[in-house]
Recover the amino acids of this structure.
């Protein structure tokens, strides 16, 4: 992964749920520090931050995400359904990654930030194609058991003390 041009895809809801909830050891990520960490540690050139839908009351959060250097991507919803749907971005992330592969875009490895098991098939495929870097789990308690068979070279935990110290507020 050291030759750069890596891309990270962040499931924003999953990251929030895995760090901001009391039952998972509540803590807050400093987005600027997190972006620098991704760049220095994993040579991430492009960082995509996926969220469910646009809500006016979260405008400050969106600006914070963008000013930290992330490309903000929202899930498309029918306006009549806003507020009734959860912000499930899994298929959007999977499609975006597969589109990059199909169009033969210039990148080295893909990283994911999520604890969601819905990405397991994608992760297996990317490993097979030698295009996978790592999956970064927001915390140990929030990581799907589907990933247990992955070698430790393919995952890490953001709540490891050394990582947490580098990226938390």
């Amino acid at each position: 992964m050291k030759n750069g041009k890596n891309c990270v895809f962040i499931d924003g809801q999953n990251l929030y749920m895995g760090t901001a909830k009391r039952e998972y050891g509540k803590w807050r990520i400093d987005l600027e520090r997190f972006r620098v960490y991704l760049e220095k540690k994993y040579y991430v050139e492009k960082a995509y931050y996926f969220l469910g839908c646009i809500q006016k009351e979260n405008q400050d959060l969106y600006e914070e995400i963008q000013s930290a250097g992330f490309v903000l991507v929202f899930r498309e919803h029918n306006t009549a359904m806003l507020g009734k749907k959860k912000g499930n971005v899994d298929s959007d992330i999977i499609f975006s990654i597969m589109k990059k592969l199909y169009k033969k875009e210039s990148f080295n490895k893909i990283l994911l930030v999520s604890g969601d098991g819905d990405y397991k098939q994608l992760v297996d495929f990317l490993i097979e194609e030698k295009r996978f870097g790592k999956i970064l789990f927001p915390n140990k308690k929030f990581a799907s058991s589907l990933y247990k068979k992955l070698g430790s070279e393919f995952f890490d935990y953001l709540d490891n003390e050394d990582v947490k110290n580098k990226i938390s507020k």
